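Please go through the protein record below and see whether the fold suits the sequence. Record follows.
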Amino acid sequence: MREQLPDIEIRLDRRDAQELTRLRGEAAQYTEAAAKNRNTVKAGQTEQTLRKTIAEKYPELHDIETKSRRSHIAEQKRAAAEQSRARAQESAGYHRQPPSQGRGGPSMGR
């Protein structure tokens, strides 16, 4: 038993080192994702500030831009729904053919 102890310790150390490497990799990925998300939030806040400034200084321009943005979003949603409907119709046209009676399946009892 005492002769096997160093081998067991080496295996445990190796496993722990691999787990530590994996966890460090995950931490790096999450750190990078968090930085990207912070940048996205910052850009959104900047845009909101600019929109508020435009709304205060140029209300007519703001109304035009808002209506255009809403119509663009509605058009995107309509196109996505149409594309989804087309895919559903395409997949509905596909019917799986049952296996032919001429071919035997796996033999029973072999």
Remarks:
- The CA atoms of residues 46 and 104 lie 68 Å apart.
- The two ends are 48 Å apart (CA to CA).
- The chain has a mean pLDDT of 87.
